[in-house]
Write the C-alpha cells for this entry.
Amino acid sequence: MAETKTLYHYSLENPLAVTAGKPREDFTRRDLLRIIETKNIERITLHYTALDGKLKELKIPIASRAYAEKILANGERVDGSSLFAGMIDVALSDLYVVPLYKSAFINPFDEKSLDFICRFITREGVLYAQAPDTILEKAYQLFCTTTHLELHAFGELEFYLLSSPSVRMYPGIKQKGYHNTAPFLKSGIIVDEMVDALTKITGSVKYAHSEVGYIENVPSVSEEINGKQAEQVEIEFLPVPIYDAADYLVLAKWLIRNIAYKNGCVATFAPKLEDGNAGTGMHIHLAVKKDGKNIMRDESSALSHAAQKAIVGLCTYANSLTAFGNTTAASYLRLVPNQEAPTRICWSDANRSAMIRVPLGWTKSSNLAQIINAHEKEMYELPEGQQTVELRSPDGSALIHLLLAGITLAMEWGIANERSFDLAEQLYVTGNIFNDETILKKLPTLPKNCAESSRILLANRNYYERKNIYPQEIIEYVSKLLVSENDEFLVKRLSELPSEQRMHEIRRIMHKDLHRH
C-alpha cells in the first residue's frame, strides 16, 4: 500500500494559499470565487496607492456569485481627479481599479472581507502613467531590459509606538532600547500581532525588534501624542521583487497603524519625534539577481562588479533621491552628522556612518551553528547568496513607490554605465567618516533641506523622465510638495530663537506630519 503523505501547514502560512492548494502567484478568478464561497466572504475590499503614498480602499458588498465575478474580472471605477488631484481633469476623471490576484488576503480587521492590492487602468485599457505603482513597474521593466538582470529589495520599517504611560515598573532608558525584551519593552504583544498579520499576508517578514529610541514622556503641542510613552520598533522584511517590496511597505504601514489604533496606541513613521532621541529611518536593502541567483558576490566572495556598479548608480542619484525618500522638514533634522543617519554620499562595508552599507551576508562563513553545537554533523546549504546592499538615507516620510522606482533607475544606470566600476573606489570609505575631516571634505553631501532637495530634483529631472518613466507632472508635484515645507532657512531661523522657544518650534516641525505618508 502506498504511503499517504500528510501536508503540514505552518500556522503563519498564507491561509488563502492553503485553501486554494497553490501558491498565491498562481491564483485565478476561479480560485478566488471558491475562496469567497468557502470562507463565507461578504465583501471585496479594493486597495490602491494614490498620489499621497497612502493606501486607499473601496468596499464592495457581494450579493451574488455573478457580481463577485464581475468585480474580480473588471474591477470598479474611482474618481481619479480626487486620488490624483491636479493630474486628471475633472471632465475625464474616471479610472478603473483592478485587483491583482496574487495580492489577495483576508482582512485581519474584518474576516468577512477579501482584500486586494489594485492597479490603476485608464479608459483606454492601459496602466495609468501617473500612478506610483505604474512608474515603478516601468522602471523595473527598463532595468530588466537593459541589464538582463532582476532586482529584489526589502525595507526596514521603523516606527514609534506611543501609548499611555503604564505603571512605572521596569522603565526604559533613553537611547538604550535596542533589542529590549519584556518587561522593559511594553509593546511586545502588539508588535507580535503586527508581525503575525503581516506574515500571513505577505509571507515575507524577516523579524521584528525594539530599536534604540525610547521616550518616557513625549512633550508635544499635538494632543494625539502629548505625554505618551514612545517605544521605537522595527519590522524588517525578506527580499522580493522590488515592485512587491513597495506594495508590502505601503500595506504594512496601513496594517501597523490599524493594529496600533485597535490597541489604543498611536504608530507614527515621522522621521524625528524628539531632539536627542533616535530618528526613524526606512533603510532599503537591494540585491541583483541573474536567472534567480543572487550575484552580489563573485566566485572569490568579493563584491561583484555588478554590485559595485549598482552602488555607484545609487551614489550618483543619491542627492536627488532624497526628493522621494525624505519629504518633510523633519527629515533633515534626522540627517545630521555623528548619528546613524547619513549626510555624505559614500559606501562601506558594515559601516553605519556610510550612506550605503554592505552588511554581513554569510559569504565567508556557513553552518555557523556547528561552531557552538559540535554534535550537529548535518551540513546546511544556503539555497542562494544572501548578500544585499543597504541604502540608509530614506525615512518614514518616503513616497515609497516613487522612491523605489528612482532606486531602480539608479541601479540600472550604474550597471549599464561601463565607467561606473572605476568610480566605486573613489566613494568607498572605512571607519567612522565623522572622525576624519580629510575624508569628509572630499565626499559629496546630501541635501540639507527640502528646498535644496527640490532644486536638485529639478536639475536632474532627466534622470527620472528618461524613457518616459516619470511623467513631468510627477516631478513637478514632488518639487512643489518639498517647496511647501518652507525650510530653506530653517536652521538659521531656529538658531535665532531663545532656547525654550527653539525647542518648542523644533517639536512643532517634527510633530506636524505624524501621519504624512
